[in-house]
Amino acid sequence: MTTYKLSSNENPFPPLPGIEEAVARAAARMNRYPDAGSTALYAALAARLGVATEQLAAGTGSVAVLYHLLQAFCDPGDRVVTAWRSFEAYPIAIGINAAEPVQVPLTADGRHDLDAMAAAAAEPRTKVVVLCTPNNPTGPALTHGEVEDFLARVPGEVLVVVDEAYREFVRLEGAVDGVALLAEHPNVVVMRTFAKAYGLAGLRVGYAVAHPDVAAAIRACALPFGVSAPAQAAAVAALEHEAELMERVEAIVTERERVVEALTAQGWDLPETHANFVWLATGERTADLVTAAEEAGIVLRPFAGEGVRASIGEREANDRLVEVAAKFVP
Ligand SMILES: *Cc1c(COP(=O)(O)O)cnc(C)c1O
């Protein structure tokens, strides 16, 4: 029996031939260091996003970019506010910079509690707030209006990271567009990645879009030659093949809707997901569901005592998820 990995929100589609060829061409020059300035990638992104290249900072995944941002801006003891539960990498990134994680509980429906987060952001020594939209692992997305209201309440010297790792999967009317916030809010830092929608998780490339001073500070903390030449070439090729890649994203969204409908029909009360995963609030039965899933040949991500995150994958894998979940409806 085939085992399907639904535990890391990866893209189930194999690489497009044109992207694989670009990677092979770059790999043929592996005796050379990559372009330290990521020139072609920055040029392609700047054109695509309508920003200046000075506003960009690439890294080995957007998680690495967050590490560099915290390293650049946080002194020991500074506060970094996130929602919780949110992305597991946040407390690790905050901890290695000796900053203090301030975790604001999600609302009962898996959303950011922006009132409580704004109150936490106003406390002295707060340097950074991270908004995760859609939130990993629960799935709800923020609207543009919600984030604008939030920014109006947060001190201007606090950096507000808008982590848009799953942005391409969002089908919410009025969803936040981080890049559109930059013109009026120089304290916003948008983080995006090629790992999920663009299918390049294994090559490690993500980026921030920010005020030129902030982007320069992030770039200054990045490891020299961090983003490899194959990764840079793949990202540029992915932007060239964006239309085709977004058709695949659309197929994943269609699958997501099918899975959400089936689970809801079983009686699950799911948070409104706009990402390539669903959240099952399994509480004390978390480990049991994950074990049953393993027996059915699907690997899920458990959060002990809280719930299970299941990526949307191949159709067969999603069918198995629905079948297993039927036995665990709360
Ligand atoms: C996957 C993910 C990222 C990006 O990860 P990289 O592979 O490092 O680019 C960033 N934020 C969240 C919330 C994610 O789930």
TrEMBL record:
UniProt catalytic activity = L-histidinol phosphate + 2-oxoglutarate = 3-(imidazol-4-yl)-2-oxopropyl phosphate + L-glutamate
> Can you give the residue ranges of the Aminotransferase class I/classII large domain?
5-323
Q: Which UniProt keywords apply?
A: Amino-acid biosynthesis, Aminotransferase, Histidine biosynthesis, Pyridoxal phosphate, Transferase
Q: Name one GO biological process term.
A: L-histidine biosynthetic process
Top EC class of this enzyme:
transferase
Pathway recorded for this protein? Amino-acid biosynthesis; L-histidine biosynthesis; L-histidine from 5-phospho-alpha-D-ribose 1-diphosphate: step 7/9
| Cofactors demanded by this protein | pyridoxal 5'-phosphate
The answer to whether the entry has keyword Plastid is: no
Return the EC number: 2.6.1.9
Q: Which InterPro entries match?
A: Aminotrans_II_pyridoxalP_BS (IPR001917), Aminotransferase_I/II_large (IPR004839), ArAT (IPR024892), HisP_aminotrans (IPR005861), HistidinolP_aminotransfase (IPR050106), PyrdxlP-dep_Trfase (IPR015424), PyrdxlP-dep_Trfase_major (IPR015421), PyrdxlP-dep_Trfase_small (IPR015422)
List every position bearing N6-(pyridoxal phosphate)lysine.
Answer: 196
What molecular function terms (GO) are annotated for this protein? histidinol-phosphate transaminase activity; pyridoxal phosphate binding
Known SUPFAM superfamilies for this protein?
Answer: PLP-dependent transferases
Known NCBIfam families for this protein? Answer: hisC (TIGR01141), PRK03321.1 (NF002878)
**Assembly and oligomerization:** Homodimer.
Which PANTHER family does the record associate with it?
HISTIDINOL-PHOSPHATE AMINOTRANSFERASE (PTHR43643:SF3), HISTIDINOL-PHOSPHATE AMINOTRANSFERASE 2 (PTHR43643)
Q: Which family does it belong to?
A: Belongs to the class-II pyridoxal-phosphate-dependent aminotransferase family. Histidinol-phosphate aminotransferase subfamily.
Q: What is this protein called?
A: Histidinol-phosphate aminotransferase
Protein source organism:
Marmoricola endophyticus
Q: What lineage is on file?
A: Bacteria, Bacillati, Actinomycetota, Actinomycetes, Propionibacteriales
